[in-house]
Amino acid sequence: MSSVYFINKGINKSIEFRGLRAQYIAYLALGLVGLLILFVVLYMMGVNAYVCLTLITGLGVTLVIGTFRLSHKYGKYGLMKKRARRSLPDCLKSRSRKLFIHLKAKTHDQH
C-alpha cells in the first residue's frame, strides 16, 4: 500500500489571516470583544439601540482600519520593536573606567 504524506510548507511562518499578521490578529479580536462588551453596557444603561449600533459600528470600522494599517506599516515584529525602543536609555553615564578595565583583563586571560 502506498501512503500519501502532505508536506506542511507553512513551518516557521507567522500566522496570517486576510492580510493581518502575527499579533495584530489578537489585537483585532480583543478589540472586537471589547466593542461587544461596550455595546452590552450601553444597551443595559438604557441608551437608544440605534445610537449604540451607530457608535459601535463606527468604532468597529475604525478598529479594523487601524489594525490593518498597523499590520501593513510595522509588519510582523515592527510594533514590538518600536515599543522596545522606547525603553532604551538615551545615553549611559559612567563615573569610573573600572568596569571596562576589568572586562579587558578577563578577555586577555581567556586567550
Automatic annotation (TrEMBL):
One Pfam family hit: DUF4133
InterPro entries referenced in this protein's UniProt entry, alphabetically: DUF4133
Transmembrane segments: 24-44, 50-71
Assigned keywords, A-Z: Membrane, Transmembrane, Transmembrane helix
Protein name as it appears in the record: DUF4133 domain-containing protein
Organism: Mucilaginibacter gossypiicola
